[in-house]
Prior knowledge:
Helix content: 25-40%
Radius of gyration: 22 Å
Structural class: alpha+beta
Number of strands: 21
Amino acid sequence: MVHGYKGVTFQNWAKTYGCCPEMYYQPTSVEEVREVLALARQQNKRVKVVGGGHSPSDIACTDGFMIHMGKMNRVLQVDMEKKQVTVEAGILLADLNPQLDKHGLALSNLGAVSDVTAAGVIGSGTHNTGIKHGILATQVVALTLLTADGTLLECSESSNAHVFRAVRVHLGCLGVILTITLQCVPQFHLQETSFPSTLKEVLDNLDSHLKKSEYFRFLWFPHSENVSVIYQDHTNEPPSSAASWFLDYAIGFYLLEFLLWISTFLPGLVGWINCFFFWLLFTRKKESSNLSYKVFTYECRFKQHVQDWAIPREKTKEALLELKAMLDAHPKVVAHFPVEVRFTRADDILLSPCFQRDSCYMNIIMYRPYGKDVSRLDYWLAYETIMKKFGGRPHWAKAHSCTRKDFEKMYPAFPKFCAIREKLDPTGMFLNAYLEKVFY
């Protein structure tokens, strides 16, 4: 019998959302997951599967049964010929990356945070950047899914293909992902080059930047023209680092957090802080190189609120200039740095924010210095309005105010996904408050 715990409190990493599930389970096998689902059916309980808990929204919250997949975290098979790896759904990317490296393999693209599970990363539509690369879920070639009634489905392009198109971005609402097979590439090194620029230069020469670097992104510092351009590209250079504890931690974390806390009393300081830190940390060209996964991922130090929407790539300039104009016209609306801008290739996954279109992701952020919430509502609403105007779709893991009506307009395949969800989970076992806003 699988053992459950009462009285567990779940909080996401940023401590912005939390819940108290009635029962908390940490299964170690498929049979134990099956037992939890059977119990939920008998008692008419809802079930939520949680991974690393990094989603900055309430997508993982429930007052029913919570299944934490952390004990189902093994690498099951490495196929060197096909360069594919099959893993249990609860493996953290922080543990998978070094194991792939031992086999001379790597994932071709990764998000910034590695303390996240394989199933969570694909289910929330996590992405990085690079116009030749899709969201992380596009690297999935097969997976197994345990549905609400205990049926085990094997999904790939050749088996249950219609479910496969839905389940790669599953939102946790189609069942419990058990295993995932990922397409890898040979291990590679990346060189990261960052250099200062201006918003006008980057937006005027966007196509040139996109062609110049395989993994191009840029950071805009609101209330200014300042931009930091970041190129990441394949290299044979030996590992080297531009990191400095004094600049990265003493200045880039401790001093910044203190000044941001002061700005909660004096909001007019935010524009100055953005300019000061650009001058302090981003005005010099910096180069470093390492194994790909060590360059893609970095330590997320600040607790924060974020929004991240995908708009059609060709709308990048227009949308960003409109966001800048809004901030210029409303000096009382303050925006922390950076606005991070990334680019992703189109795909055919039903609820992928990049469904059928090459996309630009525009990530805005408001830090919570010493856990203190900062006034952000006006910024949030203005940003969402601009994103909707340009055909945006929100990142599933991040907080947004959209409802079913919005998603029906945003996603051509939304009815198709809903039909699959209703067939696989007719009683709504895997729903929660977040998902009810999406589907009802």
